[in-house]
């Protein structure tokens, strides 16, 4: 405004209408108009008071933000470390399950191989029909009688080697294996449920931290910004901006007060100016301002000034009057900027408060997780012990299946040898039968020849030989016969 005002005041601009320009000293009416405008501009003082309130409140907010951010940063670092430790523990528990599952899968693989081997052997026994020649022997008849007691069906149907297998020997093992597998699955399901509870706790902590926008280096709200937005102002920038705008508003208000005082002084040195100003102020319904204006309304004699001094004063007043609207607009702009900056500062404070409450909730939940941690570790240990025990039993039963398979395979091999033995015995029996037949024929020939020789002898000497000389001379030769000895007698 005047040359004595600060350089921060806006530069003078050309008048908006011809009435704004004048040539020569201004009239009383014009001075009164400047006075009314200056008096009206002082109503903006409320913005300056608000600026003072914002500046004072901002200092308290900054202190609160600084304290909360320090607490939040310290707590967040501790929470991050604890969460990382919990994740390592959870990974260790999951690793125990994965290792046990991998070992169990390998054990089941060996079990499947043993079972496939046994089932293949049993199928071979089912497909191997017992030679009919074996069914006729007395010993086999006993076996057949035993088998028929336990194997219902058509008695005329040919028997297979499976008829001589004790099914309980492998079905009981398979039932035990099924029960062991179910036990492992139940133990694993219990551990999975425990791990899910652990994971839910960690997920709750992570999501709570994300929803609460808590960061170890957080200094304010995380509003979404676009590519074209500039960097968000920091807390120091906001506070410095508030102080700068407050200082600028104080300077601008001082220039308006100085202009108002100059208007009052000019009216004092204008005849009738005081009364005209009072009437105009009442017409505009402007409240009376205590101070310099009271002397304007009273009949007082102002300090005398020269015409040159008055002309210079009026010239300055006219120039300043042109800038009153710009100065008030600048004051309102500064007030709006301060409100926006203070709102941003409040958002920083709200963010810090929310972050602090979030961390308190997270810390409370982490206490619960810590209390449950021994239970999670005990569940992992219990599963590891149960899995080791179950796998040991499965391996033992798998060995039983292997031994059963080997036993039945030996049975198959033995049966192959039995058929060979049957064939060998049949051939030997046939040979013995041939030998016996030949011997019988030779004996019969000898018997017949001996009888003929005896008859010829009796005819030749019988009449001349006394009977008492050879009492057995007339006996017939005994008949020899080859027969099979009874070897099946019990």
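Q: What amino acid sequence fits the structure above?
A:
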């Amino acid at each position: 405004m005047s040359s004595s005002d600060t350089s921060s005041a806006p530069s003078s601009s050309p008048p908006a209408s011809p009435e704004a320009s004048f040539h020569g000293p201004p009239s009383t009416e014009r001075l009164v108009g400047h006075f009314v405008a200056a008096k009206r501009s002082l109503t903006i003082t409320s913005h300056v008071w608000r600026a003072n309130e914002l500046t004072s409140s901002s200092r308290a907010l900054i202190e609160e933000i600084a304290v909360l951010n320090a607490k939040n940063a310290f707590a967040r670092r501790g929470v991050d470390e604890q969460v990382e430790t919990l994740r390592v523990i959870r990974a260790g528990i999951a690793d125990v399950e994965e290792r046990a599952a991998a070992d169990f899968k390998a054990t089941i693989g060996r079990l499947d191989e043993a079972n496939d081997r046994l089932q293949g052997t049993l199928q071979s026994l089912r497909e191997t029909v017992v030679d009919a020649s074996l069914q006729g022997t007395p010993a086999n008849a006993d076996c057949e009688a035993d088998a028929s007691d336990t194997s219902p069906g058509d008695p005329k149907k040919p028997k297979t080697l499976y008829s001589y297998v004790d099914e309980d020997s492998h079905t009981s093992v398979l039932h035990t294996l099924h029960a062991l597998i179910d036990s492992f699955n139940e133990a694993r399901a219990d551990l999975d449920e425990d791990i899910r509870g652990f994971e839910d706790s960690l997920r709750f902590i992570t999501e709570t931290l994300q929803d609460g926008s808590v960061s170890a280096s957080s200094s304010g709200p995380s509003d979404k910004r676009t590519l074209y937005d500039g960097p968000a102002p920091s807390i120091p920038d906001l506070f410095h901006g508030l102080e700068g705008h407050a200082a600028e508003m104080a300077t601008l208000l001082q220039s308006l007060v100085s202009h108002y005082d100059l208007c009052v002084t000019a009216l004092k040195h204008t005849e009738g100016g005081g009364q005209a100003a009072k009437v105009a102020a009442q017409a505009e319904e402007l409240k009376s301002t205590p101070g310099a204006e009271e002397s304007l309304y009273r009949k007082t004699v102002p300090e005398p000034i020269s015409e040159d001094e008055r002309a210079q004063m009026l010239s300055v007043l006219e120039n300043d009057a042109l800038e009153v609207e710009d100065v008030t607009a600048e004051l309102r702009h500064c007030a709006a900027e301060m409100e926006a900056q203070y709102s941003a500062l409040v958002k920083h404070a709200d963010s810090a408060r929310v972050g602090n409450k979030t961390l308190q909730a997270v810390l409370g939940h982490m206490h619960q997780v810590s209390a449950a941690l021994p239970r999670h570790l005990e569940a992992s240990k219990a599963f590891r012990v149960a899995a080791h025990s179950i796998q040991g039993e499965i391996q033992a039963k798998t060995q039983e299946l292997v031994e059963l398979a080997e036993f039945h395979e030996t049975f198959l091999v033995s049966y192959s040898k039995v058929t060979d033995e049957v064939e060998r015995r049949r051939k030997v029996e046939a040979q013995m039968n041939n030998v016996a037949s030949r011997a019988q024929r030779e004996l019969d020939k000898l018997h017949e020849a001996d009888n003929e020789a005896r008859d010829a002898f009796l005819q030749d000497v019988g009449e001349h030989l006394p009977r008492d000389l050879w009492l057995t001379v007339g006996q017939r030769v005994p008949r020899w016969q080859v027969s099979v000895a009874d070897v099946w007698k019990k």
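Q: And what stands out in the fold?
A: DSSP finds nine helices and no strands in the chain.
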